[in-house]
Amino acid sequence: MTAERIHFVTGRLAEPSLRDVLARLGPEAGFEPTVQVMNITVAALMTNPWIARRIEAPAGTSRVVIPGLASGPLAAVEEACGLPVERGPDDLRRLDEHFGRAARDLEGYGGHAIEILAEINHAPRLSPEAILAEARRLRDCGADRIDLGCDPEGGWGGVGEVVKRLVDDGQTVSIDSFDPAEVGAAVAAGASLVLSVNSTNAHRAADWGVEVVAIPDVPATLAGFEETIRRLDRDGVRYRLDPVVEPIGFGFAASLGRYLDTRRRYPDAAMLMGIGNLTELTDVDSAGVNVLLLGFCAEVGIGSVLTTEVIHWARSSVRECDLARRLVHHAVERRALPKHVEPRLVTLRAGRPQAHGAAALDRLAAAIRDPNYRIFAEGGEVHLVGSDLHLASADPFALFAALEADRGATLDASHAFYLGYEVAKAVTALTLGKDYRQDQALDWGHLTRPEIGHGPSRAAARAAADAASARGGTPGNDGLGAEEPR
Fold first, then answer.
1. 473: alpha, beta or left, given left = phi > 0 and alpha = psi -120 to 50?
2. Parent domain of 421
3. Radius of gyration in angstroms for the set of CA atoms belonging to the chain, rounded to a whole number
4. N or C: which terminus of the chain has fewer CB atoms within 10 Å of its end residue's CB?
5. Is 60 exceeded by the pLDDT of residue 461?
6. Helix, strand or coil for residue 374?
7. Contact at 8 Å (CB) between 151 and 122?
8. Which of 289, 307, 339 is a domain's end point?
């Protein structure tokens, strides 16, 4: 069978790296690559109309891949060559992933089977407006049900009003209270789940007419658990079982065993786990804990989790649970490792570092003709590259001192501030093993905030390239790969 022939378009600077990647990737992915090197140093500054006037795809080509950052409509290139045209990745080092070599088949990814209950703690202490605003935020983060956490002393006279406002807003609501007056008012206003019942209040559950969460009187021994379940069965009350997960050092391992034992004894029962006992009470970022606990739930068949966002390291737990339930569902249903599937859950170490190599940076320094600087973070050092200049140091102050000694007269305050900002990002990337790309936000997974661009930017560079193209000229020669710096 003849291999598919794919034509790649690039610039002079990226040509050696692209050919190296394609020499390995072509046979692996089953295609025969051809490469057209345009008369431009940096592929990222091409425009599609400019490419269209120069494209030369060999006979037998099935499709064309252009640089991911090339601006303008693809139709111009497709018209010129009469072939399907697609954008490649922003960085040629991601070509493996573009051709499906790094990721598993994720078709249909995103399904889940776990309901997220997001608790608003000490709800009686908040105004109805504050509760409604928080409920909407939690729903936007992925919560399926808002749980109103009441104070131990009970007596919240406004619970009915709040539940009604939430239900009218389209929220699904549960009430977390042992006060029968609070529970009765909440249920009458539309709450559809009660947390929790044990042997002390199970006799009231039939009067509420809604589903309840059954817990043991004493979690460590499951005392009262069977009695409560028998009472609920006898009264025809729907329930979820929660043997209660304990914090580390207070019976965590044994409590997980109780969930397994409960599942064996009640194979068809709905179950719930209150995972906040781990995320709120352990000195660790919550994402990893949430993934592991939801993975346990997925394997055991625990269909709902209760989480909170009180302590600062757990303030993104609902969003983490929403991502985690999809990841663990994928792993359990497809019997596939939960790896290279959900990058948004990797926050601290997100953004796999990629290195250009010293030789490529030296070639860049020799090729640059403008007065701007390119910044890279690799090999444990920050690299600052300009026209016939390649400085590198792990110490940003030493790096700037060397730059000042060499080019001090050309640095104004604004430019120096910009370089300082970018170098600080580069040092952060080195510290955490992230991938640094100039003028782009560091990757913090689902916590990533868009970069706020100032001064000469990618958009400005593209606009300049488009203007040059419209005049029939050649776009500028700034940058390397995805970077278009000052």
1. beta
2. 358-454
3. 29
4. N
5. no
6. strand
7. yes
8. 339
